[in-house]
């Protein structure tokens, strides 16, 4: 069993789920559906490409907001 970092954001009418470790993206109409779909997408990625080239340990995520002028 392995955990993968997934970020889910609301964009228009969908929740977009992204796994940056694998560069895999999925979506769903609900948060639960997006989570289910990204899990399936990750499983399909692993079936296709394996995990041999992935680092064994992933650094803990750091999320923050930054202010940008003139936006």
Automatic annotation (TrEMBL):
<dbReference type="InterPro" id="IPR051404">
    <property type="entry name" value="TA_system_antitoxin"/>
</dbReference>
<protein>
    <recommendedName>
        <fullName>HicB-like antitoxin of toxin-antitoxin system domain-containing protein</fullName>
    </recommendedName>
</protein>
<dbReference type="InterPro" id="IPR035069">
    <property type="entry name" value="TTHA1013/TTHA0281-like"/>
</dbReference>
